[in-house]
Design goal:
Length: 199
């Protein structure tokens, strides 16, 4: 699936994140761990920001100047209603030229929708957009080998890919970063995340 198709799929399921029972604490503890490594609370970017605004709220609370980007037009529309003062971009992260250098970038439950052959390119782009000592947190499928699959558990079919644990760790070292934290945070599910710092 191309990113544009992912955006169309998410346009159909925004209600899943707008429900009262949605867990707004999802990923917050992990982000607080990542923010603890930040040396300067300047510009921040939430990649695949979605509609809830929970990570934007955290970044604002921690003194950052956040922006958000998402491929879904409906997610961006809803995000702007919650935070009209924030710059939101409806863009394809595989093609978008990031407008700033950032002290902190989050890509929580988002870049795993990037085509497998674009994963390294997107991660390289995000790291390039970090200021020296900047922090990136991203979640991914914590599989042993790289792979891709489609899933329709949320309704419309959605694509996922991962370079695998070793693939991501090797790539971030090649790109001049230090791994600050790695965790399977929903074990035994294969949901993993990395916190890395640009050297």
């Amino acid at each position: 699936m191309k990113p544009k198709e992912i955006g169309k799929a998410y346009n159909q399921i925004t209600h899943l994140w707008e429900r009262d029972e949605f867990n707004r604490g999802n990923g917050i503890k992990q982000h607080e761990r990542a923010i603890a490594f930040v040396k300067n609370s300047g510009h921040a970017l939430d990649v695949g920001c979605g509609s809830t605004g929970r990570i934007i709220d955290l970044l604002l609370d921690k003194g950052f100047k956040p922006e958000g980007v998402d491929i879904s037009t409906e997610m961006i529309r809803l995000a702007k209603i919650k935070h009209p003062e924030i710059s939101f971009h409806q863009k394809d992260i595989t093609k978008w030229e990031l407008p700033n250098q950032y002290d902190f970038i989050s890509a929580w439950d988002s870049i795993w929708h990037v085509p497998l052959d674009q994963q390294a390119h997107v991660l390289s782009k995000l790291i390039s957009a970090l200021k020296p000592n900047g922090i990136l947190i991203f979640s991914f499928g914590g599989i042993d080998q790289q792979g891709e699959h489609k899933d329709d558990s949320m309704g419309p079919e959605v694509y996922y890919s991962s370079l695998g644990v070793s693939g991501f760790l090797n790539l971030i070292m090649d790109l001049g970063c230090t791994c600050r934290h790695f965790e399977y945070d929903q074990h035994p599910e294969l949901h993993a995340y990395l916190i890395l710092q640009k050297d």
